Amino acid sequence: MRILQIKENVVSIASEIQNAYIDFSNMTVSIVAVVTDVIKEGKPVVGYGFHSNGRYAQSGLLRDRFLPRLIEAKPEQLLDEQRDNLDPFKIWNILMTNEKPGGHGERSVAVGVLDMAVWDAVAKIEEKPLYRLLAERFNQEQPEEEVFVYAAGGYYYPGKGTDALVREMRGYLEDGYNVVKMKIGAATLSEDMKRIEAVLKELANYFAAGDSPGGHLAVDANGRFDLNTALAYARELQPLNLFWYEEAGDPLDYHLQSELAAAYDNPFATGENLFSHQDVANLLRYGGLRPEQDYLQMDPALAYGLVEYLRMLEILEQFNWSPGRCIPHGGHQFALHLAAGLGLGGNESYPGVFQPFGGFADATPVHDGMIRLTDYPGVGFEAKADLINLFHKHFQ
Amino acid sequence: MRILQIKENVVSIASEIQNAYIDFSNMTVSIVAVVTDVIKEGKPVVGYGFHSNGRYAQSGLLRDRFLPRLIEAKPEQLLDEQRDNLDPFKIWNILMTNEKPGGHGERSVAVGVLDMAVWDAVAKIEEKPLYRLLAERFNQEQPEEEVFVYAAGGYYYPGKGTDALVREMRGYLEDGYNVVKMKIGAATLSEDMKRIEAVLKELANYFAAGDSPGGHLAVDANGRFDLNTALAYARELQPLNLFWYEEAGDPLDYHLQSELAAAYDNPFATGENLFSHQDVANLLRYGGLRPEQDYLQMDPALAYGLVEYLRMLEILEQFNWSPGRCIPHGGHQFALHLAAGLGLGGNESYPGVFQPFGGFADATPVHDGMIRLTDYPGVGFEAKADLINLFHKHFQ
Predict the structure, then answer these.
(1) Same domain membership, residue A144 and residue A119
(2) What is the ipTM of this complex?
(3) What 3-state DSSP class applies to B208?
(4) Pair B369, B149: CB distance under 8 Å
(5) Can you give the residue range of the structural domain that contains B19?
């Protein structure tokens, strides 16, 4: 068996939304299709891949380096002979041939897109959903059949006031989410606290008396703050007992994270901008995070794919962190399968933004904060009409 | 004044050489030309840029993101009004608009190429060599008129034996270098020690009796070793009193570097694969390096350019490191100007490889381990015939 062809294209996910660091007015995503010579139900098995929002399409790297390496490899170099399937680990090594160590950005996205498509094909060839394949291969436990998701929104955009923010958050609750997330850091501290308090008031109205509204709200600074600003926010946020306080400072500033941890007792979340297991090791070693309460958000689609994500989980084990502390960034089906198959703690969800890449199978609405997996083979893109239609449009 | 046009192209620097991590059989470099409307001697001022070897051309990122941002900016957004010149800092901010924090690879190269061309144009517009402009703007001291360089070679390539290695090193000494560097880590420890001992014997023959040959030899593992291997090499290298032991482990493994520093008393060098000031801060905070003897090799052309390099120097100051501890990777004229203008400790040189990007002005051969700067305005590409001819060929 062999890869017959790899197709690649770019799709816009431009929108008016802004976080504390960037706007998404020119945001793009790379998509790929890995066409194999394996025939199922009369058609060749095709694996699809894309990457999460925030880091732009990677056509140049795909065309100049990564696709040629894969296409020039001999078919047997890519094979899992025992299983008569593609071998994602061998493929990863071919992709990363003659790449220097360090400097983990951009190429980590290009490799992540291809890795997703390869795993989709591998699970389709085994005729099972990816999460079951992952549980069988990498996890002694049974896979989870449903996964915790939270609604990530609360972006800034031109003209959006607090009322619109509160309505947006209320909508997520009505859609079945139990935890909602909003952006902070593009306004002043006092303005942000007013936004947060308005949302908490709505949460208090929605949930039963005695259920702390802070436990249903996460806030995300997208790496904007210096230490003093991060500490000033921490002082105001501490009594609110929030679900988490995300990415206060620069993602590589482990010292800031550690200082902040000494001043804030409630959970942090960070890691979406760490794209290698080496960076994750540094976060765990130096960042002062607490394995009993904090969350790690590394995103396989931005960070060299599932092959590298498994290395990250090995790092977690070395530092006595459970995979259950991981809730990946990205809001897509691929990370949902990792969560269900590898015992992660949950997954991000972006109701209504970054479409059609954000979101899950059409037939599995969120219910009581959980999303069910489906029986579709592979990642199940075929169970999400707008997404599979996009792949078909670009690749047929 | 304004930028009229930015041209971009890709040049192969493929060769048979190998280090412990990669071969250079498909290595490429991006080149750019920033054409301004400033006329000097009857012609428009054009700034040229390229990047160092090892990280491949960045056409995709340049065309998709960085060039459009610069071209779409209003001319006044790029101006240093006080000096009636381009402002490299404003240009850098335009380039990095809507780029998320973290993930410093690839885009750091694309920005580095453009930053080099901008500084070349800025110094040409001021009609002075870049090193003088840098000393005036950023350094209270007078610039150095000559800079320490060492000969970086000793690559592995197919069929190359120890005799050829020794001849190569001898050639560098005869060309005027006092310090030579060879690769290690692609052979076994015992094979590498034989290679090293053969070179040391030649160095002992060349230099005066009583002059320790180890002080003229650096070795470079290119990030290949795990901690145990790095320690095993350290034990063998320690009594040789080498000039430095470079990049033993993964460039982001600060813990390995720190453990190694506890076991090896002689100088280390590292940093060529750290592409942001945040990564440099982590190295200095966690890496166990010693400011009185170790060397930092960050490469402005791979790491967001001179604008980011100045931030790295601020980090050094915070950690009480002198700029004199910096000897950049890259072996090119641009880093030579930084060394002379900002008081760095020296610069890499690649005699005979990575041509025509490696090397310095034609009229300034190395003498007693030093290279003189020239009076050509800008970086002085015009003083290196093969390089300026390449730029002219691609951009006229």
Answers:
(1) no
(2) 0.97
(3) coil
(4) yes
(5) 3-127
Domain boundary among A79, A106, A126: A126
Number of domains in chain A: 2
Query: Chain A residues with CB inside 8 Å of B64's CB?
Result: 28, 56-57, 59-60
Q: How far apart are CA B252 and CA B271, in angstroms?
A: 9
Strands B28-40 and B43-50: antiparallel
Residue at which a domain ends, from B97, B127, B157: B127
| Residue A152 and residue A121 share a domain | no
Catalytic positions of A, please? 183, 329
Q: What is the DSSP string of B347-373?
A: EEE-TTSSTTTSS--TT---BTTEEE-
Contact predicate B368/B119, CB 8 Å: no
For A:216-235, CB contacts with B below 8 A are 222-223
Reading across the β-sheet that carries A3-12, which strands appear in turn?
A3-12, A28-40, A43-50
A131 lies in some domain? no
Residue B11 lies in a domain: yes
Mutate to test the interface with B, among A252, A259, A275, A319 (most CBs of B within 10 A): A252
The CA-atom distances, in angstroms, between B242 and each of A190, B200, B245, B246, B325 are 57, 10, 7, 10, 16
Same domain, B123 and B145: no
Q: What is the CATH number of the domain that holds B254?
A: 3.20.20.120
Interface of B with A in 309-338 (CB under 8 A): none
The beta-strand segments (E) located in B128-206 are: 146-152, 180-183
Give the helix/strand (H/E) hosting B386: helix B385-395
Cβ neighbours of residue B277 closer than 8 Å, sequence gap 6 or more? B308, B311, B312, B314, B315
Question: Closest partner residue to B56 among A64, A97, A286, by Cβ?
Answer: A64
Beta strand pairing call for B3-12 and B28-40: antiparallel
Q: Any long-range contacts for B71-80 (C-beta under 8 Å, 24+ apart)?
A: B71/B3, B71/B6, B75/B1, B75/B2, B75/B3, B78/B2, B78/B3, B79/B1, B80/B122
Q: Are residues B184 and B35 in the same domain?
A: no
Do B313 and B367 lie in one domain? The reply is yes
Residue in A28, A90, A39 with CA at minimum distance from that of residue A62: A28
Cβ within 8 Å of residue B50, ≥6 positions away: B11, B29, B30, B31, B32, B113, B116, B301, B332, B357
Q: Please give, rounded to a whole number of angstroms, the shortest distance from the CA of B302 to a CA of chain A.
A: 10
How many beta-carbon pairs below 8 A join chains A and B?
A: 141
Instruction: Pull the structure tokens for residue A183.
Output: 């952006």
- Is the same domain home to A178 and A60? no
Q: How many CB atoms lie within 10 A of CB A261?
A: 16
Taking CA–CA distances from B96, the nearest residue in chain A reads A22
Whether A276 and A340 map to the same domain: the answer is yes
DSSP-assigned states of every residue in B211-253: S-GGGGEEEE-TT---HHHHHHHHHHHGGG--SEEE--S-TT-
pLDDT in tens, chain B (396 residues): 999 999 999 999 998 888 888 899 999 999 999 999 999 999 999 999 999 999 999 999 999 999 999 999 999 999 999 999 999 999 999 999 999 999 999 999 999 999 999 999 999 999 999 999 999 999 888 999 999 999 999 999 888 899 999 999 999 999 999 999 999 999 999 999 999 999 999 999 999 888 999 999 999 999 999 999 999 999 999 999 999 999 999 999 999 999 999 999 999 999 999 999 999 999 999 999 999 999 999 999 999 999 999 999 999 999 999 999 999 999 999 999 999 999 999 999 999 889 999 999 999 999 999 999 999 999 999 999 999 999 999 998
